[in-house]
Design goal:
The protein has about 900 residues and is of the alpha/beta class. It is about 50% helix and about 10% strand. The strands form three sheets. The chain has an eleven-stranded mixed beta sheet. It has a four-stranded antiparallel beta sheet with strand order 2-3-5-4. α7 runs antiparallel to α8 and α8 crosses α9. It binds adenosine-5'-triphosphate. This is DNA translocase FtsK.
Length: about 900
């Protein structure tokens, strides 16, 4: 019965294939003939065997695209460019040498065979002499120099991508030039009796025919016609090119002039600063005078609340418009206001308005004398003007009211000029459209129309599918379309919200960088009424994307490493720095990487906030993070308390009351600036401190909006243990740069898509309205540095905004420590001391981890160890040095 084994359902092979009852009966014949049986068995197996799952093999790339890709590759282009370039040089020298050597070489060439010529004078040798003889004398005469120009242009195009032209167009024009020049020179030299035909045989014989046929008059008219054609076809582009070069040179000169102006401005500022310093050293009499003047301006005396209203009425038209939606400006970045001039004018207004105290008035120097700008000037200077009316840097306390310090926003010239016009090769666009149409048709999806919108890095192809097409079907074709276009960054939006179309985004071959300057100078940004406008970049339709951080109200930024997060954070910070004065805005910067925000340390006095006693305002030390977050929670609670007492629902109402003099500063009321907390590498914090960080961040995110505190967290690890449920729930506004997987994209945006971005600032923004793809504005480190330098050069007396003392929670003070007295040793003191000395490392964060204690307790143990001389002082984020050995330690502990 062995022969039946094949059909036994218990044998795996058979079992998998078919159930036994359906098998045909086995014949006697089969049993008798073993070979036959085997054969039959195989046949049956083949018939019944379930098709094995196909192992997916990458489809072999067809030959033609492969060749195309190879031809279009950078290496091939460079090799071709080099070849054309060197050949052009060789040909150029041979042609030039032909003028001096043609007569002698001609007879040599004509009398010998190729390769056998002996005495050749042409610097290009026999080859050069023969090519020059053929092209100049026997073909197109001097017109052949066009070939050299063509070679040079093609070579440069291959090597450096410039000048930009379409190869076919350029070649046709070059041929027209070659023929025309040859004919014209041929006509002009027709009577010359020289050994060389300066118009070549072509110029000579064609002209002889023309003169014979049309006579001299006809020949001259024809010649003029040809010259006209030549100018129209060839030289027009050339003239345009020259004009473009000229314009570029003028623009460069303008930028240089602007730079010089900035330089002068800086020198003037330095001069101003010196004056301030001198002002500190004024004689006592003047000091007294200032003080008495201050007394006269006491803003609130506790008895006459009305007096407070004599303070400047800070213009708050800015707060009058409420709008949650981010601005996607209808104005393209091209449309820019003349705000550079306005900035200057703001300056001039502050400077020229007479201040009550001469020693602090900056040098009244007219900055801009353009009368056209006067009106704008009046509009833009409101804040600063009102400042200058009470301008008194010696005024000891203005209760934080904005405008107490003369302040100038950084000029735009600091930022680099960027691309204004974005364009995509018409050929590329047409080709992509055709490919999309074809791919969709291949999958049985006919479309009615397709239109392209070109963005800085991505082009949106909007298609209208035929009736009856299932949208989901198109959505599933993303990979096929990407393959057919051989492009990255393909994303399908099906359907585009609010439109009856499907969008296919495709990365441009030649992506443009959107400069921060273009965005900051845009009318949309300049005229926005948002309270905390963050200018993020440019949308696919080249509109400026601006959102209001105050409405967001907190922002989560995530993306894989190197995709533009840091640039994005700098863009956010810079756009706030260009709109908010130091009195109106403070940052808390948490930077575990230690390098990202270090540039902003310069503006500590102006824009940063820190906890009492902290050395650095940029928090790089993990130990300080918990304390700072705790301090921010206290600040939030304090603000709420004051808001409650002032019967104000939010910070704007509260600050309005302050400005109107309705609140008593002696009761703790003061103008509160916005606080923006920026946390880079949030994942590091969560990994190290876990709940100790997550809980205060979540608290702030839940409540801090109304009191003007906003949190931005950034992470390159968008996993669920970093972006936890509690964090996600409290950060409705999210930005995703390119991530490595759809899962990461879902973690950030709750949907896939971010994995299909192209990097380098390409991002998706999800902020209450439908998700938007934006090319982030690019701001480079030197630009940030210059902005900070500019701000830092301006005197600002207040110093860093002081946050309240952090609270020591019950859990953190457990374990036998008593308050702030470091003399009373913690219960863990001895154990920790021995551990530190034996391991020779002393870091507060490792203590926290090892003993599962809070920051405050670990910090205090460390301070006690320092006080006992066991460890050295703190050095920023670095571990402390261990000062004693085990023997000394024991004597300290016993003594
Ligand atoms: N908006 C942009 N436009 C053009 N290029 C950009 C843009 N943003 C980033 N890039 C390019 O990408 C590089 C990396 O950007 P960035 O340093 O911001 O990445 P990152 O995500 O912060 O990386 P990491 O997490 O490792 O610090 C930049 O040096 C720059 O060349």
């Amino acid at each position: 019965m062995k022969a039946y084994d094949t059909f036994n359902p218990n044998i795996p092979d058979a079992e998998e294939v078919i159930p036994a009852p359906t098998l045909p009966p086995v014949s006697e014949e089969l049993r008798q003939s073993e070979p036959k049986r085997k054969e039959k068995k195989e046949t049956v197996k083949r018939v019944v065997k379930k098709p094995e799952p196909k192992t997916k093999r990458a489809p072999a790339e067809p030959l033609v695209p492969k060749i195309k890709r190879w031809v279009g590759s950078q290496t091939t282009r460079w090799i071709l460019g080099l070849f054309l370039g060197f050949f052009a040089v060789y040909l150029g020298f041979s042609f030039l040498s032909y003028f001096t050597s043609c007569i002698k070489d001609q007879s040599e060439i004509n009398n010998t065979q190729i390769g056998l010529s002996g005495d050749i004078s042409n610097v290009g040798g026999e080859g050069g002499a023969r090519i020059a003889e053929f092209l100049i004398n026997e073909s197109f005469g001097l017109g052949s120099f066009v070939i050299v120009l063509w070679l040079v242009a093609m070579s440069l195009k291959q090597l450096v991508g410039k000048p930009r032209f379409k190869s076919v167009d350029f070649t046709i024009k070059s041929i027209v030039a070659l023929v025309t020049v040859s004919l014209i020179i041929g006509l002009l030299t027709i009577g010359f009796n020289t050994q060389v035909n300066w118009g070549g045989y072509h110029g000579r014989y064609v002209n002889e025919f023309i003169v014979h046929f049309f006579g001299w008059t006809g020949a001259i008219i024809l010649c003029m016609f040809l010259v006209g054609c030549f100018f129209v076809i060839c030289l027009r582009d050339f003239i345009n090119w020259i004009l473009r070069l000229k314009r570029a040179r003028d623009a460069r000169r303008k930028v240089e002039a602007e730079k010089r102006a900035i330089q002068r401005e800086r020198e003037r500022e330095i001069e101003e600063m010196r004056r301030y310093e001198d002002a500190d050293a004024v004689p006592d009499a003047v000091e007294e005078m200032v003080e008495s003047d201050d007394d006269a301006q006491v803003v609130f005396n506790g008895e006459e609340p009305g007096l407070y209203s004599t303070l400047p009425d800070f213009d708050d038209t800015e707060y009058s418009i409420e709008d949650d939606a981010p601005i996607v400006s209808e104005h393209s970045p091209k449309e820019q206001t003349r705000t550079e001039a306005v900035t200057e004018n703001r300056t001039s207004s502050v400077e020229t308005t007479p201040a009550p105290e001469p020693i602090v008035t900056p040098n009244p120097e007219p900055v801009d004398d353009n009368p056209d700008l006067e009106e704008e000037e009046d509009d833009m200077i409101v804040n600063v003007n009102s400042i200058s009316q009470v301008e008194t840097p010696h005024l000891p306390d203005n209760h934080g009211l904005p405008g107490a310090h003369p302040y100038k926003f950084p000029p735009f010239e600091i930022l680099r000029e960027g691309v204004v016009k974005v364009s995509v090769d018409a050929e590329e666009q047409l080709e992509n459209k055709e490919k999309i149409k074809k791919t969709l048709l291949d999958f049985g999806i006919p479309i009615l129309s397709i239109e392209a919108t070109v963005g800085p890095t991505v082009t949106l192809y909007e298609i209208v599918p035929d009736k009856g097409v299932r949208i989901a079907k198109i959505r599933n074709l993303v990979d096929d379309i990407a393959l057919s276009l051989s492009a990255e960054g393909v994303r399908i939006i099906a359907p585009i919200p609010g439109k009856g179309t499907v969008g296919i985004e495709v990365a441009n071959k030649d992506p443009q960088t959107v400069s921060m300057r273009t965005i900051i100078k845009s009318k949309a940004y300049q005229e926005t009424k948002y309270k905390l406008p963050i200018a993020m970049g440019s949308t696919i339709s080249n509109d400026v994307y601006i959102a209001d951080l105050a409405k967001m109200p907190h922002l989560l930024v995530a993306g894989a490493t190197g995709q533009g997060k840091s640039v994005g954070l700098n863009a956010i910070i810079a756009s706030l720095l260009y709109r908010k004065t130091p009195d109106e805005l403070k940052f808390v910067m948490i930077d575990p990487k230690m390098v990202e925000f270090s540039l902003y340390a310069k503006i500590e006095a102006h824009y940063l906030a820190k906890i009492p006693g902290a050395e650095d305002a940029i928090i790089t030390d993990m130990d300080k993070v918990v304390a700072t977050l705790s301090s921010l929670c206290v600040e939030m609670d304090n603000r709420y308390q004051l808001l409650k007492e002032a019967h104000a629902r939010n910070l704007i109402e509260y600050n309005d009351k302050i400005k109107a003099g309705k609140l008593n500063p002696l009761e703790g009321h003061r103008f509160f600036p916005y606080i923006v907390v920026v946390v880079d590498e949030f994942s590091d914090l969560i990994m190290t401190a876990g709940k100790e960080v997550e809980i205060p961040i979540a608290r702030l995110a839940q409540k801090a909006r109304a009191v003007g505190m906003h949190v931005i967290i950034a992470t390159q690890r968008p996993s669920t243990n970093v972006i936890t449920g509690i964090i996600k729930a409290n950060f409705p506004a999210r930005i995703a740069f390119k991530v490595s997987s759809g899962v990461d994209s879902k973690t950030i945006l709750d949907t896939t898509g971010a994995q299909q971005l192209i990097g380098r600032g390409d991002m998706l923004i999800s902020n209450s309205s439908p998700m938007v793809r934006v090319q982030c504005a690019f701001i480079d480190t030197p630009e940030v540095e210059e902005i900070c330098d500019y701000i830092a050069r301006q005197p600002y007396g207040q110093g860093a905004y002081e946050l309240p003392d952090p609270v020591v929670t019950g859990s953190e003070s457990e374990g036998g420590e008593s308050g702030n007295n470091f003399g009373d040793k913690d219960a863990l003191f001895e154990e920790v001391a021995r551990l530190i000395v034996s391991s020779n490392t002393a870091s507060t964060s490792s203590l926290q981890r090892r003993y599962s204690i809070g920051y405050n307790r670990a910090g205090k143990i460390m301070d006690q160890l320092e006080a006992a001389g066991i460890v050295g002082p703190a050095h920023g984020g670095k571990p402390r040095s261990v000062l004693v050995d085990a023997v000394t330690l024991e004597s300290i502990l016993n003594g």
